[in-house]
Amino acid sequence: MTTTTNSLESASEARKERLIALRRRKLGQDVEEGGEGSKEPFRFRQRNFDPETRTLRKHNAGEEQEDTVENQVKGLAEKIIAEDEERRNQELDLFNIAPKRPNWDLKRNLEKKLSRLERKTAESIHVLIRKRMVAQQGTPDDLSAQINAQQRDAERDEADEASDEEE
Description:
Blueprint: H1 2-27, E1 49-50, E2 55-56, H2 69-72, H3 76-91, H4 94-97, H5 104-137, H6 143-166
Antiparallel strand pairs: 1-2
């Protein structure tokens, strides 16, 4: 515990010394010259003011400016805007806007109706085939077989209509 305390204390002392040296450098005092009791008067650093002309100095483009975040990202905004415009132009292409399957919603809505129609179409085809077969073979001799076939067709039609209403 004492070693960590000693190391923290020494670190804080070193930091304090660096801060004092930095302050002196800012104020124009020499670090080696002396400490608190130096007799040198305080002098202003005239960064933005020209005492001879009594006007403000303007920064010249030729002067070396500090490395700032603004200088580092100077062209970045324009670059991002240009890339964004390119991306938007590509997205506005008509082939990219048009759906790959333009009628999928129509097919989805018509599937139920088409399934009913397919069943009815198949039944009507069977009825037509039966009629042709009967016409080719002649009329059946058995009248009861003919009546039973008609009843079965009627029952089948009623069952199909009931199933269509449920859907």
